[in-house]
Each structure stands twice: as structure tokens, then as C-alpha cells.
Amino acid sequence: MRKEQFNFENQDLYRKICGINDEGVKILEKQLEMDIIPRGNGFQIEGESAKVEFALDFFKKLEANYRERPDRDFIDSFDFAYILKDAGKELRKKKARENEPERNTPWKPSDKILTTYRGKHIFPRTRNQEIYFRSFQENLITFALGPAGTGKTFLSVATACRFLQAGTIDKIILTRPAVEAGENLGFLPGDLNQKVDPYLRPVYDALNECIGPEKTQEYISLTKIEIAPVAFMRGRTLSNAFIILDEAQNCTLAQLKMIMTRLGRNSRMCISGDSTQIDLDHGRSGLEKVVTLFKNTDQIGMVFFGKEDITRHPLVEVIVRKFEEL
Question: Where in the numbering of this chain does the PhoH-like protein domain appear (predicted)?
């Protein structure tokens, strides 16, 4: 058995880690499989030598990742679990003496993406989310593929709101195919927004979370936010805009070509989807074909999310893994 003391430089971080009634300590004890006692400015840890060594490395990584985030609202079990996995990967990589440049370097979080209308700060929470956010700034088109709950839609909307508030763009354009119901939009009741609303509800939820329902409706009325199905993009040039194509796995090759060629001056485009949730007939989805076609193309970024990026309830990661086993 080995006993060590780890002291945090940042006392605010230490308090956030401990949580209310030391709930954070209980989570850490379970995840690190050792006794952890809050003492002084940090933790006294006791356990097997290898586990203690790993815990010390974990605390150093936790402190390093959050040193530049003094305004972070909270630290929860997802953050612990993700950084724990990341620390474990780093340990295994050191032992294997691997040296892949980007994926094997320690993940360091960036500045916040956005402060919501409620004052909550939105940050990338995983390495891939950080790469995703960075891609929007470095590339004109960003593809994002991965399972549900990895932040593809929410982070693209948050980044679009950031660009709009900064005056980098003039409008946000939200679009997606409407195929799940197997209905023709022309036969559905209501105006265009009412026809498309049910299909874009996740995007509306993200907008309401970021800028609030009132500002969302105001921007829609001022056409600073435009919502339309993919078919209505034909023949247009989309300039000074942040275009988000959601559920792109339900687009055909022709539709993806059409939407990508709408890109105008000073615009950014996000194309996101999950190839395991295709509602089209077999072989009709064009997403994976397009991703393969444009791999390693300048100004086009590719981000591939995995189960480790799921930020919804931990059970969602288990559900995704079980379905992959079928």
C-alpha cells in the first residue's frame, strides 16, 4: 500500500472537484478505486502503488486542463470519466512508446465557445469536440460523423451563434432533409417553418439554450436565422452565413453536392450525421461517399466522434455500444 498527498494550486478548482457534500470525492473514489480523503488544499490518497501513481497523474492532468478555466460553472462525472480515460490512454501510449502527433498529445481545452443568455459557459468537453470547434475556425466546410449525444448539433449551433454575435457572419442557415415521416412537404399543413419545425426541433432546442427563445424568434423574424429543408437551398448562393446541415446521413449524393456548392463568400458550413441512423433506402445515403471523396482536401475538415464523446447520460454510451454488438 502507498499513501500520497496531492495539493491543488487552484483552491476554487479544488472546491468544485469536491462538490456539494463531497459528492465529487465519492465519484473519484469509485472511478480511481482507492480511498480519497480531502485534506488541506488537496487529497490524501491511499492504495496500490500503481493506482496511486495513476491517480497523481490524473490530478495533474485535471488541474492542467482546467487551469485556464476559472469561470467554469461546474465539474461533473462526465469530466472525471473523460479525463480519466484520456489519462489512461496517455499512460498506455507512454508504455508503448507511440508517437502519433495529434491524437497522442495531451488534450488541452480551449477558451469557451459561448456564454449563453443565462450566463452559462459552453466549452468543448472532449478532445474531438475541441477539434470540431477548431475546425470551424480553420476550414470552410466541416464534416462531423458520430453517434447520438456527442455534441455535433449543439456545438455547431453554439459556434454559429458565437460567429453571429461577433459580426463574423450575417445569418445562420439551418437545414436538414425531411424524410423520416415519409411525407411530401407540400401536403403537410402550415407555412414553410411549420412544415419543417418538427424535423428541426433539436436545432431549435440548441438555439433556445444558447441565445434564448425570445432572441431566437427575433432573429428568425429579422431573417438572421433562416430555417429551410434541403430542397429549398437549390439555386441559391449562401454568402456571409453559417450553414448547418443536420442529419446529413439522410441526404443523397445529389443533395450533398447541391448543398456544398451553395457555399458563398465569407461563409462556413457544417455537415453532420450518424451513419447508423439512415432512414433512406439501402445504398441511397451519400454521406460516407462524400466523406471519402473529400478526405484530405484543403479547407474541408473531418471530425469523427466516438462513444467516448457522448455527453448525455452515461447509459447512452452503454446503449450505443450494445447496438454496435448486434
Answer: 122-323
Cβ–Cβ contacts within 10 Å for residue 119, how many?
A: 8
**In the block, which residue shows the cell 456564454?**
115
Give tens-digit pLDDT for 239-266.
Answer: 999 999 999 999 999 999 999 999 999 9
> Residue written as cell 445529389?
254
Q: Which CATH class is domain 114-324?
A: alpha beta
Residue 125's closest CA among 136, 117, 133, 115? 133
Superfamily of structural domain 2-96: K Homology domain, type 1 (3.30.1370.10)
What are the residues facing 37 on neighbouring strands?
44
User: Which value, to the nearest 10 degrees, does the dihedral of the CA atoms of residues 80, 86, 89, 95 take?
Assistant: -90
Q: How far apart are CA 46 and CA 60, in angstroms?
A: 17
Q: Global pTM?
A: 0.67
> Residues of the chain with pLDDT > 90: what percent?
39
Query: What is the C-alpha to C-alpha distance for residues 151 and 312, in angstroms, rounded to an integer?
Result: 9
- CA 152 to chain CA centroid, Å, is 5
Which residue, chain included where needed, has cell 495513476?
A: 54
| Residues 103-125: tens digit of each pLDDT | 444 445 556 899 999 999 898 88
DSSP-assigned letter for residue 209: H
Among the ranges given (145-149, 206-210, 276-280, 311-315), the one the predictor scored with the smallest mean pLDDT: 311-315
